[in-house]
Each structure stands twice: as structure tokens, then as C-alpha cells.
Amino acid sequence: xxxxxxxxxxxxxxxxxxxxxxxxxxxxxxxxxxxxxxxxxxxxxxxxxxxxxxxxxxxxxxxxxxxxxxxxxxxxxxxxxxxxxxxxxxxxxxxxxxxxxxxxxxxxxxxxxxxxxxxxxxxxxxxxxxxxxxxxxxxxxxxxxxxxxxxxxxxxxxxxxxxxxxxx
Length: 168
Prior knowledge:
The chain has about 170 residues and is of the alpha/beta class. It has helices at about 1-20, 130-160, and strands at about 35, 40, 45-50, 50-55, 60, 65, 70, 75, 80-85, 85-90, 95, 100, 105-110, 115, 120, 125-130. It has a domain at about 20-130. Helices cover about 30% and strands about 30% of the residues.
């Protein structure tokens, strides 16, 4: 069992490294911010286009012209911070302080939405709190895929099964 664990570490580490290195290829212009495992801070005087974070959190004090997305991290929109597009968090929280503004939709899957009464969300708000939603979003598709593969294998085995003639 211990050898299997060691054998899986190297390919998994290589996969994570390649994934993290390829994130820069998705940035459309120099004002996009994409990180893997390092928190992103948009300062009070900063203006960025899009912000995406994998395994980290985003703090907005300035202006984000487009969308903000986190996978496994939280988004905090502080006083007078503004997001021009949508905010989506998977497995993290969304916190809006006073005078924080989201001009698009706010969607939280597997986390909590904490919103000051003076904060503004101009689009729709979706909050699917709890770990059950993470299961539905990420694990359930793999279960369905596994069932499809099992069904295909079952059909192939049934078609290839040799028929034995009955003896009298």
C-alpha cells in the first residue's frame, strides 16, 4: 500500500505543476489576474479585468471590470470595492462589506454569503450552502460517467460471450 502511494505522488505532482503553469495561457491581457495557490489582492487604486483563483482567496478593494471566480477559496469585497461582472465561488465564501458593489450576479456553491445591508448586488444572488452541493457539482458527474462505462463494458461482454450449443 505504501509503494502505491509513492507511485502516485510523482504523476500527481507533475499534473498539478503543469496545470498551474498553464494558467498563464488563459490570461487575455496584462490586467487579468490568475493564480494557483496564492491569494490575490486588488488594492484600492488597482483596476483589473478578470480575476480567477484556484485554491486561494481574492480580496477586492479597488475595481474589477469583469468577473471574479474562485475554486476552493473565498471572495471578499471590501468598502467601496467594485466588481463589474459576476462573482462565482466554488467551495468558498462571499463576503460583501459596506458600500461593496457587484454589478452582475453573485453565486456561492458550497459556502456562505455574508452581506452588509449597504452592499449592492445588481444581478441575481444564488447561495447553495453546504458541502452537499460540492458533491453534486463535482462528484456526481464522475458517478454518471462510471455508470456509462460500466454499461458499455457489460454490453460488450454480453455480445462477445460465446454461445454454447445445447447437448441432447
